[in-house]
Amino acid sequence: MAHNVNFNLNDLHMDAVLESPVDEEVVHDSFNQLIAEQSQDEGQYDAFELQQLQRDLDEEGRDDVAYLSSPGYDFEDQNEDWDSDERLTDPLVDERWSSDTLKILSSMPSRTIGRSRGAIISQYYNRTLQLRRRRQSRPSIRDFSRSARPSILGYGIETDSCTYAIDAKVSKKEQLVNNLRNLAVGDRVRMLREMPLSMSDKSDLRKSVLDRETQIKSSKRVTCCSDLKICVLSAVRRGWYSWLSFLHSLHLWQVALKRVGGRFGTGVLSYFVFLKTLLFFNLFLFLVTGTFLVLPQAVHSPVSPTENRTFKGLELVTGAGYFSDTVMYYGYYCNDTLRMSGRNDARGHIMANGTKPDCVWNNLSYNMPLAYFFTIGMALFFTCIILVYSMSKSFGQSFRIDKSQSILAMKVFCSWDFRVVRESSVKLMSDNICTQIKELLAEVKQGDTSTTVCQKLWRMMVHGVAWTICIAATIGSVFAIYYFSDYIHQDLQQLSRNRNANRNPLLDEAKLLALPVVVSLINMLLPGLFNLVAWMEEYDSPSTYTYISLSRNLMLKVSVLGILCYHWLGRVAADPQSIGLTCWESFVGQELYRFLLMDFIFTALDSLFGEFLWRLFSEKVLKRRRKPEFDIARNVLELIYGQTLAWVGVLFTPLLPAVQIIKLWLLFYIKMGSVMINCQAPRKPYRVSQMTTIFITLLCFPSFLGASVCVTYTMWSITPSSSCGPFRGLKTMIQAGKHLMEKLEKDNPKLSVLARAHAFLVENPLFLFVGAGIFLIVIYFHSQVVDGQRTIISLLQRQIENEGEDKKFLITSLQSIHENKRTQSRRPRRQDSNC
Questions:
Q1: pTM of the model
Q2: How far is Cα 457 from Cα 452, in angstroms, rounded to an integer?
Q3: What pLDDT digit, counting tens, does each position of 242-285 carry?
Q4: Which pairs from 252-258 meet CB under 8 Å and 24+ separation?
Q5: SS in 3 state form for 713-748?
Q6: Tell me: the pLDDT tens digits for 95-132?
Q7: Any idea where the TMC domain is (predicted)?
């Protein structure tokens, strides 16, 4: 309420975001006291003030009290700012207000709170004084002088009392300047920012403070020690600011993200922000698995295999060969407790499950099976917590109640950072703000287009045909992948039967790339068909087009991943001897590595050549000046697809997150270069405030949920290999913890409680379902809280509008009653004069 009251309902939402300049507790507690004091003082001063105000308004032809300006503001300047048509539509215009009406209106809260600049200066004088003294008490309104209290003084009336008020105001301003000068720089800036004054008034206060400091410094004699102290403090401050600027510049891809956001908008920017988020997820997984699995096993390597493999170069593509006997895959890890002091001969040492360990170490123990099980489990568990937290936080940030008009006003007037002084940074910020303003304006202007019944039926039929084509193409692709993977599996079975025949090992490894190549080719070509169908549908809203593309690409990726998981866990893991595998976990890890690598290769080729060739075709053949737009849905689903492969493969390939980190790092620069050269900004700017939330939600459900189900099913149900890995000889991977609990309970019966807790929390799948249910309930309740807040704020906004209507009605009724009384009082006088 720092500005004049305006009864125009179109601007009420703008006033709702402004901060009240006077402390609400002080004003509301003393409001009745103010009215009482003003009603008691009905002498010549208030009467003269109201009569003079009425006379001035009558002379200027301005009878609308709703447009009274603050002291010192020119009526004629304000009159020029308002359109004549808007004034004529206001029911409060062209009314002749009486002095009684003006007196009541001047006592209303909207007329008395925060309208006086002197009251604002007086209030913030007390605030700065309190801040200096470090006290928590609030000043009473009795401490304010008469001139500092809110009133209608200063509206073009020149009296002796006004002279006293102006002198008091000036003295308060000088005291406020002194208090601001004695504050710290940060407190001073914060206090000036909170003051509900115009920019010119704030600038004058800041200039007065700086001038006062300059005068005081020039009047004082600066000694040698003081000069040295000032120089040291200035150097320390400059060094600290430089250090903060350096830390700020260390933010990953900050300048590049600003450049993309300023040129292409928030839609394309959301893709790169999502890629950055996935990079940090994989970095967390790599740190966990590298610290607790890879590093201990690399330091204490198991017994070297009898077969020495040589590096041929093809392993970089297939992941097999030389890499098979490294810490990259599951089969390399031993199944015993690592000990620190040295290696003993493993002969004669038999495990509890009847198998011989690969490595036996003495002294400092490190149980590798338990470390492997709990490291993978806890890494996925903490990833789930981070995902749920990110999703709930993103829900709270994106599904806000702010209207486009209010966000637009804040973006126009409050978005510039005056600390930015470098020319390149200024250009980036200006481009970013301009793009966001375009998106907000497009959101404000968009509306529901009226269509006829025939047009609606035609569009529904087109959408139905489009979805039928997309679903049929997805089902056909899924069946093609299913039968081709079965063919590859049968070919491996045939190769295992003809083991003694002369075969080329390089050719056998190259055949393993067939299935990843086919799947990656389908993932690259089918989204193009989806885009063609969407182009035929002719969506009016770009955001609707993006969401539809997301849903269709998600349907394809989920179907493909489901078939692949069935191929790995239902065919390969169910009967590994039929294809000649001694360690099916390492084979599945190699498959996941190949799929991840092929996905990166095809994505890079599509960015470097596909988008480039399409741009040349559009410019040279189609003779279009516009470049193609960046396909957000397709690229985002490719990221989610690759991340799902990484989460599934972390059990079989502990170093797969490192491969994913390298892939995402290279992909960022490839996509960045392709976007800058081959793409352009969307034709219709649109704001995607909920896009990041949708990306995180899709990453959690179904990506992470599906990967967790696959990993949990593998640990709980599938029998591990009997000749490799940390769980060899066990029926399931989860029995590693069960055997340890049984051993601890046998050695120390007091630890039976720990064994029962392990059986209830780890071995019982019900606990996992309960935990997943709790996370879902948390997400549900958070979304319900956000919905409730949205409902409450919408009701409050409606209440504000209704109160504005009530205020109009009351003022109009008050004026009509006054006019009726005036006419009734004039009639007896006329009758008396006639008599």
A1: 0.70
A2: 9
A3: 787 777 777 888 888 888 988 888 889 899 999 999 999 999 99
A4: 252/276, 252/279, 253/668, 255/428, 256/672, 258/428, 258/429, 258/432
A5: HHHHHCCCCCCCCCCCCCCCCCHHHHHHHHHHHHHC
A6: 455 666 666 665 555 554 444 555 666 666 666 766 66
A7: 583-689
